[in-house]
Amino acid sequence: SERGTETIYDQYDIIEKHTQSGLELVEKYVKFAKERTEIEQNYAKQLRNLSKKYNQKRSSKDEPECRLSSYQAFLDILTEMNDYAGQRELIAENLMMNICIDLTKYLQDFKQERKTYLMDAKKAQQSLESTYKQLDSSKKRFEREWREAERAAQYAEKTDQDINATKADVEKAKQQAHMRAHVADECKNDYAAQLQKYNKEQNQFYFSDMPLIFNKLQDLDERRIQKLAQGYVLFSDTEKHVMPIIGKCLEGITKAGTNVNEKNDSMIVIEQNKSGFERPGDLEFEDYSQGINRASSDSSLGTPKVSVDPWKKKTNNFWLFSKRSKLSSPVLAPFSTPPAPSPNGPPSPKFGRDPLSYCLKEINKTVKPRISSFRTLRRSPTVTEDFAHLPPEQRRKRLQQKLDEICKELQKEVDQSEALGKMKDVYEKNPQMGDPASLASQINQTSQNIERLRGEQSKYETWLAEAGGRGDTLRYKAHSFNNNGANDVHSPDGAYSDESTPDPSQAIYAEFDDDFEDEDLAAPIGKCTAMYNFPGASEGTIAMQEGEVLAVVEEDKGDGWTRVRRNNGDEGYIPTSYVTITLNK
Q1: What angle do CA 187, 193, 197 make, to 5 degrees?
Q2: For 85-126, how does the pLDDT look when each residue is reduced to its tens digit (9 = 90+)?
Q3: Which of 243-247, 267-271, 328-332, 577-581 has the lowest mean pLDDT?
Q4: Where is the F-BAR domain (predicted)?
Q5: What is the DSSP string of 511-580?
Q6: Residues near 350 by Cβ (< 8 Å), separated by ≥ 6?
Q7: Measuring CA to CA, how many Å separate 512 from each of 368, 415, 453, 516?
């Protein structure tokens, strides 16, 4: 019996340890799934931040690059990456809900149920141990009493055979032996009853109570294993469930890459940036070693030649690979704000005078600063309302775009005016619906808006017509000033905002400039007094101080710049609005 009890103790300890180890495995897996969830959440967060970081730089719809398929594809990739991050978040959420929270709930139930079964087993063990103790006590009592009864019987028999013993002694010894024998019989019967009780309880313990408890623990452990196995499957199914959507995200990224059209992008860039300038013809060589021949000069320098067709094919490339100049305008006087020169259009040609002398003066006065600044590009033009600072093609596009916007706004105002008129008629016919006078302010404001928009429409239509019909003027200006097609009416250096590859013909301009530097200076046509300081930092300009008096060599041709000369012979351009001019009569 003692060996059997030890055996059940051993089995109980093993089962208790096994079930505890199983629950610890569930806890370990829940912790593992939770850490995986945190990894997915952090991964998704980092992906979203990455997508947001790079999407902000491309958010402006006004950027011309947004029309390019390569840029649009990148934006699509960022969008798909953001959706992909959402699917990683969904994986984390499902792992948390279906594994961590669900298994944690079942784990608590398993622990409570296991605790109950283990307590029942302990109670059965304690009951069997208590019965065994009673059995052992009765057994030891029976053994003790039986030995006492045996000694009492031996003493009575010895006393009966002793000749010196009295009859009373013999009777007393016999009664004592009989009493001990009776007590021994009672202990024997009690021991037999306790033994029967223990054997019954032991049989109940081994064949009924403990098997039932162990079966329950086995069922609990199997349910625990089954639930854990489901958690293992969910770990995979959770990600498999979103794989189709993740696949669509990846397909979207692939599609974004395949949708890139390099040819179309090139055409878009060309369309956005082509200037529309005509390429000027080559200047002919003047052989001064044989003396200046007026006839040959007239034929070679009298009229600038313009080659139209070759430049039309190359204009796009000329402006396509240029860089925008971002340098600041000249610094103004600290206590005064001079108005910016307002352009009135490009200067008109003056070939009515002698062609040779005019061309020599023009080359001497304009070619050098404009060609030099074509290489340096130190100053960007002032943005004007009529977009005259842009190349012809870009100007026409911007004017047309602005005109379309005005037309849309005008149509909206006209529709609103008609609606207000109808509402006024309804109010006049049905005064109970409203006061017609209450609409007067809105009708008046709408009318003013319509008049203003019509004025702007007419203004931009005029500018657009001018832009469409200024081809000859633009070609003349491009030829006679900077040889690169720049159409800047604000800057004497002719560079509006692009930096291009220098033309080899610049060397010819430089030679002309060097040859004519010693020519006689033109006579002043007036004087001017500086109202503001002007640094003259750009090529072709000249610095001046407030109050300084300079000689006017060439008046403003409508581009906002006047050519002046100092007493020491220095010449250059200054903003017309910075000075007060007095011309000679």
Answers
A1: 140
A2: 999 999 999 999 999 999 999 999 999 999 999 999 889 889
A3: 328-332
A4: 1-265
A5: HHHHHHTTSPPPPP-EEEEESS-B---STTB--B-TT-EEEEEE---SSSEEEEE-TTS-EEEEEGGGEE
A6: 358
A7: 9, 62, 50, 6
Amino acid identity for residue 511 in this structure: E
Let me know the angle formed at the C-alpha of 493 by 306 and 356, rounded to the nearest 5 degrees: 50
565 bridge partner residues: 551, 571
Tokens of 358: 């005019």
Token pair recorded at residue 239: 């990600």
Residue 556 φ/ψ, nearest 5 degrees: -60, 125
Which residues in 328-422 belong to E strands, given as ranges? none
User: Of 382, 76, 402, whose CA–CA distance to 257 is shortest?
Assistant: 76
389 touches 342 (CB < 8 A): no
Give the Cα separation of 39 and 35 in Å (integer). Answer: 6
Write out pLDDT tens, residues 265-318.
888 888 877 777 777 888 888 888 875 444 444 444 444 444 334 333 334 444
Q: Report d(CA 88, CA 82) in Å as an integer.
A: 10
Report residue 481's pLDDT band, with 50, 70 and 90 as the boundaries. Answer: very low
Backbone torsions φ then ψ of 381, nearest 5 degrees: -75, 165
Q: Is 498 helix (H, G, I), strand (E, B) or coil?
A: strand
Mean pLDDT is lowest, of 174-178, 431-435, 507-511, 545-549, for 507-511
Cα separation, 65 vs 44, in Å, equals: 29
Q: How are strands ordered across the β-sheet holding 561-565?
A: 571-575, 561-565, 549-554, 526-530, 579-583
